[in-house]
Design goal:
Distance between the termini: 61 Å
Strand order of the largest sheet: 2-1-3-4-5
Strand content: 5-15%
Shape: elongated
Largest sheet: 5 strands, parallel
């Protein structure tokens, strides 16, 4: 990686800059003089007097412009950062990393973490772009008529990038189901956290109503997800596949304990509830058959209560 330095202020700052340059060279980085050539720019600031503060801030703002070109990372260190870290973070969000004087002993570690985190963020961004693009095409053009070329062309990514994440479009479809399921259950978890629910069964009905409302408002999501929400996929979404919906699953398990509910098989109960909700709502929402969803909801609620009674017993507090 090519790194450019701007050192401001006193001779001590210059010494710190030289030490930092030496550390980066030891780790294989190339130091460049022209900021236009740099993939990372580090500004060593001074902040003891007002003119120095002003110079430091103006220099950082000037370096921000290079992020529109080749520069991927902008780092600030030095006295100004030590004295005004919190204020600077709020005022200059374009800076990727602020290194205080008392963190100089971890200088390279923090640089390395920045690079690794950005790489991971870029990977997630590309994968999410492919997933969302595929969802748009699958629900619009249809799965059978959508090719890998269609997906990467619309996503603006290379075909090689696609195969870094997916074996083929069938593998993408399976991961997309888990991804969309995890988003749905994460949103349900957030809504559940914000609500005041008196008991376990009411939580189940609340989540049911939330999912049904989402399906009614996003019928493309329902068509894609409802008949594919098998337990195997959901288990992946709440297991190793997604930390997001793991929160929903943990909330579900915590609720069993919080409301003093004994359940012989929590996973089997959840499987039954999910399959029942997704399968019975499909025709009611899409075709109003055999009745509209609004007409069917009281019966769905009653059936869900009966399903819960098969699996659970409440214990005395």
């Amino acid at each position: 990686m090519k790194v450019g330095f701007v050192s401001l202020g006193c001779s001590k700052n210059l010494i710190d800059t030289e030490i930092a340059i030496g550390i980066l060279k030891e780790h294989g980085m190339e130091i460049v003089k022209n900021p236009e050539d740099a993939e990372m720019i580090i500004v060593n600031t001074c902040g003891f007097i007002d003119p120095a503060k002003e110079e430091a801030i103006n220099t950082i703002l000037e370096m921000v412009e290079y992020k529109k070109k080749k520069c991927k990372y902008l780092v600030a260190m030095g006295c100004l950062v030590q004295r005004y870290t919190d204020e600077l973070k709020k005022a200059l969000p374009e800076v990727d990393l602020w290194i205080r004087l008392d963190n100089y002993n971890k200088f390279y570690t923090t640089i390395e973490e920045l690079i690794n985190n950005k790489v991971e963020d870029n990977k997630k961004l590309k994968m999410n772009t492919l997933l969302q693009t595929a969802f748009d095409l699958f629900t619009g053009k249809g799965f059978a008529k959508t090719t890998v070329s269609d997906i990467v062309n619309q996503a603006g990514l290379a075909k090689g990038t696609f195969y870094l994440y997916f074996k083929d479009k069938y593998d993408l479809r399976d991961k997309l189901i888990a991804f969309k399921a995890s988003q749905l259950f994460d949103d349900a978890h957030k809504a559940l956290d914000a609500a005041v629910i008196p008991d376990f069964e009411e939580e189940i009905l609340f989540v049911t109503d939330y999912i049904i409302e989402r399906f009614q408002n996003q019928q493309g999501l329902m068509k894609f997800l409802s008949k594919n929400l098998s337990w195997g996929v959901f288990q992946d979404a709440v297991g190793t596949g997604s930390l997001v919906s793991q929160k929903f699953y943990n909330h579900y398990l915590d609720s069993l304990q919080r409301y003093h509910v004994e359940c012989s098989s929590p996973k089997l109960l959840l499987f039954t509830l999910i399959e029942f909700i997704s399968s019975t709502s499909y025709n009611c929402i899409l075709h109003n058959e055999p009745v509209s969803m609004e007409e069917y909801m009281p019966y769905m609620h009653a059936a869900l209560r009966q399903i819960c009674k098969v699996y659970i017993t409440e214990t005395p507090v």
